[in-house]
Fold:
Amino acid sequence: MSKLQSIKGMNDILPDQSPTWQYLESTFRKVVARFAYREIRFPILEHTQLFKRSIGEVTDIVEKEMYSFADRNGDNLSLRPEGTAGCVRAADQHGLLYNQTQRLWYQGPMFRREKPQKGRYRQFQQFGVEAFGMAGPDIDVEILQLGTALWQALALTEYLSLEINNIGSAQDRQRFGAALTAFLEPRAEQLDEDARRRMYTNPLRVLDSKNPAVQEALQGAPELADFVSEESATHYQRLRELLESLGIEYRENPRLVRGLDYYNNCVYEWTTESLGAQGAVCGGGRYDGLVQQLGGRPTLAAGFAIGAERLVLMLDSLDKVAASYRQSVDVYLVAIGDGSTEKSLALATALRGAYPQLRILSHCGGGKYNNQLKRAFASGAALAVILESEAAGSEVVEAARIRRLDDSGETVRVALDAVVATIGEYLTKSEA
Ligand code: HAM
Structure:
């Protein structure tokens, strides 16, 4: 019988890979805590309608990438393709939005049925932040400061660049969209099938096309900047001033429109050159209309989400994860002979109690001395504690050998009841 494999584009994270994930997760948590954001958790499964009404019917995500199915009672449900919609639904449902400000963060798997390639998967993790009830642009800048602080904490600043754009209000974009359609109609021949369809359904998305022929046809097209309202332009101008005053570097990209429909005013993306085609590691912006669009009271909002796999790829390829994160065992207990089993398990408990920061591995399953020691070396532990009965056939264990697992092979013999204290001395020595 053939073995079952994981679903294409859905990856396992194996123990050797998890230190990078843990490093990233703990760094993200520290940074959001420094900005006083609070965690929110919401379901992975929601009514399909939630995503249709927020992300937009005519977007790649909703048109062709959602994992949707009818529940047994006929409800149409979807695995969440992103976090903003669920976050808004949850916050509004529980009354966190009306007349309040909120700074929230979340983390978890998202699902999009895209064509898998390096940095693009069908199940992927996002870290997101969403802020509600603030007009900005100070809150927009705070969110960008948070991103900047995260890149600094991860030592990735030099590999990432921030692009921003002002996409105006929904009405501004409608007027711009109409002008774009009018511009593209006489050039329809030069467009591909996708662009020809989008020219009517969602003309702004044509700007995003990766097809050089479509980009060629867009030469001389109307510019969104010429259609944005004064209010929107003022917000954006102030945002840029604040970024400059804080020394946050950015580049304006008038073609940046984002793949989800709920945005207005400022949108942004951090991209990297170091990942090939999937260079966007973080994207977001304001979405002041979304809460109301989903049935809530009008609530100002802004946020971004980070693609964790892309950061993990960067951290690994740039070797940015401290070796201490990769360490999984500190002290390896070797137990030779029946008499030592009980002593070894008890010693492990005593060591774990005395040094909670240490990872103590107590060898299980028996085996010869050489085999156990080999495992101790392979574990990466710094020290082995070897418990062995005093004489062949004897069950008496009164002393242990503590051995450095390095080239020195330095070994000391100590009484069993002195092991915990001696390990402490080794620790102080290695810290000094
Ligand atoms: P997004 O740009 O669709 O925005 O996704 C955010 C990030 O998730 C991307 O920049 C990318 O790093 C990562 N990502 C997206 N799709 C994949 C994939 N198939 N495989 C791996 N990584 C992926 C949003 O999702 C918005 N909800 C962001 C937001 C929050 N806007 C306001 N608040």
